[in-house]
Specification:
Elements (H helix, E strand, L loop, with lengths): L1 H8 L17 H13 L7 H42 L4 H26 L7 H15 L1 H16 L7 E4 L2 E8 L3 E5 L5 E5 H5 L3 E3 L5 E10 L5 H13 L11 E7 L4 E10 L3 H18 L17 H4 L1
Antiparallel strand pairs: 1-2, 1-5, 2-3, 3-4, 6-8, 7-8
Length: about 325
């Protein structure tokens, strides 16, 4: 009689539950299942539990696959939409590329967090994990993080943009692409350099095409026998024959010094940056032709050899 009363007093167990095991489907049971899977010890699973696990996680796995496929498609579509919209309004090409890629990875990141939360994983707990791993990752990827920080600064301050001709980290060329970690530069002989952003931001940056107008300087020496005023007029006439020369700022012919073998001049004109190469060639040609027409020689190094006879042969 006492045993019967004791049995009636015990609480009824949930179907499929075993002693020392939470009821199937509860939060404690889900945590218990994850623990068993992580330790690869699932010998305590019964038929009902395997059926519940297969149904519960199988449907969610299917949902995750569908969601990630949709997220991948939507992120690509959104990236192209942002890129096309910014290009239509003639937005900066560097920021256009960065924003379009950021939108894509933002959508994919949100999809991953949604999938994790759908499996019952608290995404807020990842903050502690990320914080704990941040120090180790920072020490292991010091160079990479410095490139990332430099890339962010380049995108914020924009000392150059895509299409500019720059001289950075000892490399001269046209900017092809600016990423968060590297900058791609194409040289004039069609080579491509991938330069870490930390090397660029930590050194002098020369943006050759930053201003719309550039100055062309030609240094030339005239013979000491030539008249100075005549030489100046010849050089001014040479400037007048260069079609690419702009009126403002005004061109100039400057007497720079008296050299060892020549009177030194500097011929300076201003041209549009796209005409710089052609204008420099035209100015060099015009200076040479005008000096030749005026009969003004351009000194060049010469070597005179004097042969002395020995003293005994002279006697």
């Amino acid at each position: 009689m006492n045993l019967l009363l004791l049995a009636q007093a015990l609480p009824a167990k949930a179907p499929g539950a075993l002693p020392n095991k939470p009821p199937i489907g509860s939060k404690d049971w889900m945590a218990w299942v994850l623990g068993k899977f992580s330790s690869l010890t699932w010998d305590e699973f019964g038929k009902d539990e395997w059926t519940y696990v297969a149904t519960y996680y199988g449907l969610r796995a299917l949902f995750v696959v569908v969601l990630m496929v949709l997220a991948w498609t939507v992120s690509s579509w959104a990236s192209m939409l942002v890129r096309g919209g910014l290009r239509r309004v003639r937005f900066d090409e560097t920021l256009t590329s960065f924003i379009s890629k950021f939108v894509r990875w933002l959508i994919l990141g949100l999809a991953v967090l949604t999938c994790l939360s759908y499996f019952g994983i608290e995404t807020t707990s990842f903050a502690a994990v990320i914080g704990a791993a941040g120090l180790a990752i920072g020490l292991a990827f010091q160079g990479t993080l410095s490139n990332f920080a430099a890339g962010a600064m380049l995108l914020v301050f924009r000392p150059y943009k895509i299409g500019d001709i720059v001289n950075v980290a000892g490399n001269l060329g046209k900017v092809f692409e600016i990423e968060l970690f590297t900058t791609a530069i194409d040289t004039f002989d069609n080579r491509r350099f991938i330069i870490p952003n930390s090397e660029i931001f930590g050194s002098v940056i020369e943006n050759i095409t930053y201003h719309p107008v550039r100055r062309v300087d030609i240094e030339v020496g005239a013979s000491y026998d030539a008249d100075i005023d005549q030489t100046r007029k010849a050089l001014e006439d040479a400037i007048g024959t260069v079609a690419q020369c702009v009126a403002n700022p005004e061109p100039a012919v400057v007497l720079t010094g008296l050299g060892a073998s020549s009177v030194d001049w500097s011929v300076r004109i201003w041209v549009n940056r796209d005409d710089f190469g052609d204008a420099k060639q035209a100015l060099i040609r015009a200076v040479k032709m005008q000096l030749d027409q005026a009969g003004i020689a351009i000194p060049y190094p010469q070597l005179d050899i004097h042969v002395d006879k020995p003293a005994d042969s002279a006697a």
